[in-house]
Amino acid sequence: MNPLPDADHVARYCRPSTVDESGRPMTGAFATRDGEGHLPVNWLECFDPRVEVAVNRVRDVLLEQGAPLRPNGRFALLDIGMVKAAVKRSLGRSLQINQLAPDNDPSGAAIVGQPDDGLMVAAEIKALVRHNRVRRAV
Questions:
Q1: What does the alpha-carbon distance between residue 52 and residue 58 come to, in Å, rounded to a whole number?
Q2: pLDDT 10s digit of each residue in the chain, 138 long?
């Protein structure tokens, strides 16, 4: 796994059950699943430095892979450096955001370093998501 630059961005797909009535992701959208050990995200700059172009490419790749993107789902856009700094400052925990071994999705990445009970980390990440950093999934 290759570390991604702090200046870059990732998108996290948030299922409709993890999005509130206003369309903003809730804390659960950023919690790791039991035993998974990492939070899957997609590296935007892998495709294009322009956010909207990159989000569209991520959407296309996920749909091609058969991902169940839903109309009420959202993409939360995260600044890599801000995520790492906020979690380190608030919780004293060092996260890594790494590109996974690219196979059919070169944007595949993961936030690594959350504990199994990572709701505090998830809450820190959620707090960074502003309304203007959320995009419709489909």
A1: 10
A2: 799 999 999 999 999 999 999 999 999 999 987 767 789 999 999 999 999 999 999 999 999 999 999 999 999 999 999 999 999 999 998 999 999 976 778 999 999 987 766 789 999 999 999 999 999 999
| Domain edges within the chain | 2-136
- On whether the CB atoms of residues 99 and 46 are closer than 8 A, the answer is yes
Q: Assign residue 19 a region: left if phi > 0, alpha if psi is -120 to 50, beta otherwise?
A: beta
Cα 17 to Cα 70: distance, rounded to the nearest angstrom: 10
